[in-house]
Amino acid sequence: MKRLLTGLQPSGDLTLGSLIGGIKQSVAYQNEYDSFIFVPDLHAITVPQDPTLLKMRIKKNVALYLACGIDPEKNTIYLQSENLYHTNLSWILECHTYMGEANRMTQFKDKSKNRENVSVGLFTYPILMAADILLYDADFVPVGIDQKQHVELARDIALRFNNKYGDTFTMPEPLIPKVGAKIMDLQHPTKKMSKSDEDVKGILFLLDEEEVLRKKIMAAVTDSDNKVYYDVEAKPGISNLLTIYSCLSNMEMKEVEEKFKDSNYGNLKKEVADLVVETFTNIQKKYQEYMSSGIVDEVLNQGKMKVQEIAKQRFEEVTKKLGLGRY
Ligand code: AQP
After folding, report:
1. Which residues are annotated as catalytic?
2. Per-residue pLDDT tens digits for 77-123
3. Nearest CA to ligand 1 atom 10
4. Which of 79, 280, 286, 321 fits 165 for a cystine, CB–CB 3.0-4.6 Å?
């Protein structure tokens, strides 16, 4: 069975973008693939974090994975920092990555913009992501379009390593949704909706209350021609709302455009808000149940044992090939 792997960093509360770009794809494929989903807490500390909030978000992430439909019977669920092989392998991969390759990562350029004291960890983050993927022989990695480049870097490093030391790593492939590969900020529709942005007016958090969700959607930035159709260049705000509707209703974009072709912007926003509220309310109910049960620790304990065993074997194979150690 092919393996699929995904993770959503607890750098902020999960958003509609996290749901559509990451979790939804894993849910859709969990019957077909051996699915791994983890909490990349080591990635979160590439930018400053409040330790109390971070600890809280780790649990919230897992409860939200389950509430969004990740089945613990069909998925291996684990916490990155509980398996030290991720960072150990990352170092080895760093030593097989060229500066030029790392320098090309556009997400680093975006995330380091307007930020003081950027950490080296933020720069090398894609290499840790390569270790996350290559440690477990992942065949597929569901990602939004912004992370495609990171999966390609993992492929390049894997190929280089395999060529030099013999067949070791599986070549991963990015799985990018046809629609919704980039959900945009409602206030800045040419910018990705990101969970750690300080201005939260354009971000739909999975745990936002109904009133807040409706307010944010009704205030979404659009344009002035009052015609509803999909055109990302000319109408980024409206196209984003249509994308959200298409992803949450599972309707093709053509059908969504047809449905709203005679609507004004107010009606479109109201229908998007209704659908978002319905989706999020269901998730929130389940989330509360999972948070108050012991299931989060249960699944993380099970996942930890399983992945440590797999990672140990892979890491020992790698160190042997490199000539590290005494035996
Ligand atoms: N807005 C989005 N649209 C589509 N996909 C998205 N993803 C995140 N936001 C969107 C996808 O979700 C997966 C997990 O991403 P992540 O949380 O580990 O990292 P990220 O891409 O850095 O997400 P954020 O929200 O932008 O986090 P911060 O603010 O901390 O940088 C990935 O596949 C991602 O593409």
Report:
1. 111, 192, 195
2. 999 999 999 999 999 999 999 999 999 999 899 888 888 899 999 99
3. 17
4. 321
**Residue extent(s) of CATH 3.40.50.620 domains in the chain:** 3-180+294-322
Q: Which residues line ligand 1 (CB under 6 A)?
A: 7-9, 11-12, 15, 17-18, 20-22, 143-144, 146-147, 181-183, 192-196
**CATH classification number, 210-289, choose in 1.10.530.10, 1.10.240.10, 3.40.980.10, 1.10.287.380:** 1.10.240.10
The total of other beta-carbon atoms located within 10 Å of residue 4's CB is: 24
Q: How far is CA 168 from the centre of its chain?
A: 26
The SS3 call for residue 98 is coil
SS3 state of residue 142: strand
> Is-above-0.85 flag for pTM?
yes
Q: Do residues 172 and 140 make contact, with C-beta atoms less than 8 angstroms apart?
A: yes
Residue 250 CA to ligand 1 centre (angstroms): 20
Structure tokens belonging to residue 286? 């389940």
* pLDDT per residue as tens digits for the range 155-208: 999 999 999 999 999 999 999 988 888 999 999 999 999 999 989 999 999 999
